[in-house]
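Worked example 3 (structure in, sequence out).
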């Protein structure tokens, strides 16, 4: 089992990020669906009386998705896994500012594979809080903290998009950006940090460490690219309401169902292609 806490600082308020994240998730879903692969949304509905983080949060929005991922796992897994087994199921409870996501492969790996992503979001913070997820002393000992800098961390050539470069982007609606220099986090206002705790386990003799390393590397890549997109699409989501977001999600679900059956495979591949 590996535990890493990714801390992503952004020039947003926590309230803005709620809208920005949901908008960007919808957009990213379209970019990663096509040619028989991609995201299938089975449920998107309100939930209540589901205690999270010791009962501090218990209501919000529940989603259940299936990711069809044949090209998005390492080649050595594709060779070993039976055909049709590379479906990842994702359940998410969004009780913002707390969110929990559980990823499994019930068709093949059952209890031998899981990824838990617990997210908390704090305003006026640059990623300095110590134990927001209230981990036990044993888990704190093995937790690794990783700070993600959306402006200065390197991205793969295949992931780079000029229009999603925080060092050149400036929002016309808010005036925020570009994010320049190693200390931009200390100079922006507003500022917030996402604390994303990723716990993963892959019980497969001879492959556990290799796959768990790949998972954590992929999560860092995903968080970096996603949050670059969040910031650089500010003028597209700024001013939207939650009603606007739900309407966008409904429309995107229809588009995903069509796109998954046609076209070419799209989105981030395991090898960066």
């Amino acid at each position: 089992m590996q535990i890493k806490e990714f801390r992503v600082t952004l020039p947003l308020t926590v309230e803005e990020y709620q809208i920005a994240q949901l908008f960007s998730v919808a957009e990213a879903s379209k970019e990663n669906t096509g040619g028989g692969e991609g995201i299938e949304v089975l449920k998107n509905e309100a939930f209540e009386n589901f205690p999270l983080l010791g009962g501090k949060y218990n209501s919000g929005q529940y989603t259940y998705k299936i990711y069809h991922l044949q090209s998005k796992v390492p080649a050595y897994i594709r060779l070993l896994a039976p055909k049709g087994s590379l479906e990842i199921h994702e359940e998410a409870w969004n009780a913002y500012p707390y969110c929990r996501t559980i990823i499994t492969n019930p068709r093949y790996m059952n209890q031998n594979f899981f990824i838990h992503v617990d997210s908390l979001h704090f305003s006026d913070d640059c990623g300095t809080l110590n134990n927001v997820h209230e981990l036990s002393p044993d888990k704190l000992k093995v937790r690794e903290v990783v700070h993600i800098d959306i402006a200065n961390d390197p991205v793969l050539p295949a992931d780079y998009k000029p229009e999603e470069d925080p060092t050149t982007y400036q929002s016309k609606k808010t005036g925020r950006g570009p994010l320049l220099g190693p200390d931009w986090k200390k100079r922006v206002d507003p500022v917030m940090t996402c604390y994303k705790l990723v716990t993963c386990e892959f019980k497969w003799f001879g492959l556990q460490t290799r796959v768990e390393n790949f998972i954590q590397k992929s999560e860092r890549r995903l968080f970096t690219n996603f949050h670059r997109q969040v910031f650089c699409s500010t003028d597209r989501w700024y001013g939207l309401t939650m009603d606007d977001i739900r309407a966008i999600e409904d429309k995107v679900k229809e588009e995903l169902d069509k796109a998954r059956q046609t076209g070419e495979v799209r989105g981030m591949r395991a090898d960066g292609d």
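Notes: The chain has seven helices and eight strands. Strands lie at 2-10, 38-47, 60-68, 87-95, 98-104, 113-123, 144-148, 192-202.
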